[in-house]
Specification:
By secondary structure, the chain is an alpha+beta fold. It is built from two helices and three strands. Helices cover 28% and strands 19% of the residues. It has a three-stranded antiparallel sheet with strand order 1-2-3, with no helix packed on it. The chain starts with a helix and ends in a 5-residue tail after the last strand. The mean pLDDT is 79.
Length: 54
């Protein structure tokens, strides 16, 4: 399944190697303020959605 996910990302233009693993870094405890949820990137200290682009 990981290969299928990587191939799907590549087809959509993602050039990162193992991008799905890089996204998992956002859940590390060394970055306690930010989490990815089904609604987007969340600042868990304020429970507000964080804009990805300025």
């Amino acid at each position: 399944k990981a290969e299928q996910l990587t191939e799907a990302m590549r087809k959509m233009g993602c050039s990162l190697n193992n991008a799905y693993m890089q996204h998992s870094l956002l859940a590390l405890v060394v970055i306690p303020e930010l989490r990815i949820s089904d609604v987007g990137l969340i600042d868990v200290t304020t429970f507000q959605k964080v804009d990805l682009f300025l």
